[in-house]
Design goal:
Strand order of the largest sheet: 1-5-4-3-2
Structural class: alpha+beta
Order of helices and strands: EHEEEHEHHHHHEEHHHHHHHH
Helix content: 40-55%
Oligomer: single chain
Shape: globular
Length: 310
Amino acid sequence: MERVIQRQVADFHTDHIFDCGQAFRWQRQRDGSYTGIAEGRIVNIRFIPEGEKSQGGTKADSSCFSDNRKRPAPCRGRIVLSNTSEEEFEGFWKKYLDLDRDYGAIKRELSQKDPVMKEAIRWGGGIRLLRQEKWEALLSFLISQNNHIPRIKGCIEALSENFGEKAGQYQGRWWYSLPSPKTLASMEPEDLSICRLGYRAKYLIGTARQVERDGLPALEQMADPAVSYEEAFEYLTRFCGVGPKVASCVLLFSMEKYKSFPLDVWMKRVMERLYGQKTEKEMKAFAENTFGDYGGFAQQYLFYYIRQTG
């Protein structure tokens, strides 16, 4: 399947989306595009900014991506998806990439809050919150604890290649799904030593056993709009190794609980340096009072901004 789907988009940039710590199965290619896998589907996504002419893809992409670490990059143009079909794009990728949401309206509202947020949005204006599979998000953010992004990605790929199933071959390599709760539930932490997960291995096994015991639909049910943020948060923190930060990430990146405001080392640095908040309690209260139901969007803009500017 090599069909190419092209769409005009606004408020979109692949670097912003796939390099903001929300997903770990996307790999940046030499031409600036990203190849990744989601729910067994493998795709390559390129972004060509408005005004750039695509010459086989490479020149346009390179000129866009080469300087976005130094200054804000344009966020309007075309997205080009390869290794998919029109039907799959409409039925899956459009929702996964959250293309139907008006991010321009969100950015305008958040920009009115304060000059810090306005500047953060200027840097990461192409961020969109991916709608990830719940089990993948839970597994990924358990691995993310006290970890950095390159190592998180390496651990997840090792876990997939050694214990997942083949999803398909693309760009000269095989891609693998993550192991299911049933697969991990039958294992012991030492069985995962090849993945170099450290103490996190026991969390993955323990959580897999809990998910298997409850049934995967019970986890997925937490994304239902009828389930409150507080109820879903309480449910997730019952899993082995899941604390407030992991639960907040799962709620935001897979369950559409957009008031969620995850606090990690980077975000605590942002909130103290730019907003003067000293404690986690103060930070949470400030985010809720200032950003409200858009807390998760604000968190991503701030997270990307501080990582780009130091």
